[in-house]
Amino acid sequence: MFRSQQIARLLLEKEELDDRLLNADHSEWYFIDRVLSKFQVCYTFLTSLLSMVLTKTSINGVLGRGGMHLFSLSQLQEFLDVSVEWVSHDKKLLDLGAGDGQITAIMAQLYRTVSVTEASKIMEWRLKQRGFKVVPMNMWHLSGTYHLVSALNLLDRHYNPSLLLTQLHSVTLRSESLLLLTVVLP
Question: Which of 5, 56, 134, 162 maximizes the CB count within 10 A of its CB?
């Protein structure tokens, strides 16, 4: 097929798709917008009430909000250079400051034993719901050896970042493990 015929065919297909889009029923789009708007109003109202007695992190834990996406399983496998021979049955993961466990759940697909720490008691509850072993925050560096230690977006929130780095160094050196460390940049 000649180049001009290909261009003409593509232009015709685009015209047909544009017509279908213009003639389509958009009521579902607007319905979803209205529902989401109402949900956001409820969330804002509940947040303002709960903020009198709970932290923002705990409020998000109660309401099931505040999750984030950092990487997919395939991105993590590529980043960690996971080979096709990878066997997870003997692998251990420690995720510090695991939050609601959304990112931990992605990492957990590569590890059999998953331990977590979290400052918020409500988030600890969420993590236990997901089946993760919660380690006391002041004991994690004494809790064993791991294949991967993860501290995602924790360094800037820690009360003593220097101590955290020292403990991370000690645990990863003792375990001969990898350290996955991320820092939030403004």
Answer: 134
